[in-house]
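Reviewers of the previous submission asked for a worked example of the structure-prediction workflow described in the proposal, so we include one complete record here. The input consisted solely of the amino acid sequence. No template or homolog information was supplied to the procedure at any stage.
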Amino acid sequence: MPCPLKSARTSSCRSWPISTGPGQSDRTALDTVPAILANQFVQQQKSELAELQRQQAQLSDKLGDKHPDMVKNRHAIQTAEAKIQGEIAKVVESMKHDYQTALTQEQSLMHALDQQKADALALNRKGIGYGALQRDAASNRQIFEALMQRTKETGISGALKTSNIRVVDNAETPRVPASPNKLANMMLAFIGGSVLAVALVFFFEYADNRIKSPNEIKAHLGLPFLGMIPSLTDQVEGTPLLDNGVNAGFAEAFRMVRTNLVFSTVDNGTQSICITSSGPGEGKTLVGSNLAVALGQTGQRVLLIDADMRRPRVHEVFEMAQEPGLSNLLVGDTKTAEAVKQTRSKGLWVLPAGRIPPNPAELLGSTRFKDFVTTVGQHFDWVVIDSPPVMAVADAAVIANIASGVVFVVGAEMTSRTVARTAVEQLANARGRVIGAVLNRVDLDNNAYYYSQYYRRQYGEYYTSTSASA
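From that input alone, the workflow returned the following structure tokens.
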């Protein structure tokens, strides 16, 4: 055992009787403690106490308990005993402190000893591992040396052997290069280019979110499909109208839209139809004008109202004056009989836009316009209202709320699905009843295969032959 630990344990053993033995009240046990026996003050006080006790015994034979000498003697005895007790308490407290100090030192040294033992064990284990590694290294060195010796022997024996290799025929320069193979590379390039081209076509088709077919109208807008209007490639003098020499396919497309519209509005009484689109340039005015002409050709009375008082075009289509018109009528500048004009088309009357006002939305949202539509409904079977685009101004939403139905015109390959869907939502928020959608400006000549499930070239030939025979 190390010397510091032995010293700490000796100190704790010396102090152990005081800290674990009897209490301070046991004078007999405390008097036997070496530290107290060695205390001169305690021994001197004990001698004085013994002398006082002896004097007390002598005085008690002669004097009473209350005699002043007896009282003085007892007081001296008590004082001596108090001094002895106080000094013993100090010695005991000092020994307790020494015991605690020795015990703490012993515990610290024991912990250090345990750590030294653990380090010694770890070093011993490392020594064992080091010895094993030394043995492995020596064994590997012997194996390596043996292998090197074998390698040298093999090299020497190989050099001594005679070669049996001989030249059979001299090498010739090839007439055709082995690489690159031009034919194979061209075939791979053709196949790779074709696959990439097809992938790009499908990618651009997927990335193109413009509405191009009736199925997209049904799927993305949730609207019934009323028909599609082909784009005109023939030169027509003026605006193309059904009674203005257009081709048979164009006229038949509007008759199909008219038929679907009539069967979609089976309610009795006058039908007021709002014609609108998402944005400008989709052909809503052309659709509204030809639809009004087509309805008039069935023998019904039709009134076409140009409610686009921001960019009016109906008066240009039918070649008439812009004023007086709807705006003049709503502000009270003219009468209905003066503003409504009959056209050359059968059963069709037109109310132009009139002078462009500063507040078209307020005029269209007024009670006077609503009453006017109701009033003219008593004289006409159909009231077709050409309104501004939905996304441009709020006029279309106001008219959609008043009209009994809305025909939504979508320009083929012009309008994105998001814009068209937003426009339909705005009409729905205005409580407008969207009857269906018309796909306008469909390029049947250049995209015949794309629209093959809706239109074939034989249909046009059928229209042409029918017109010629008639």
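The first helix runs from residue 3 to 20. We consider this example representative of the routine output the project will generate in years two and three.
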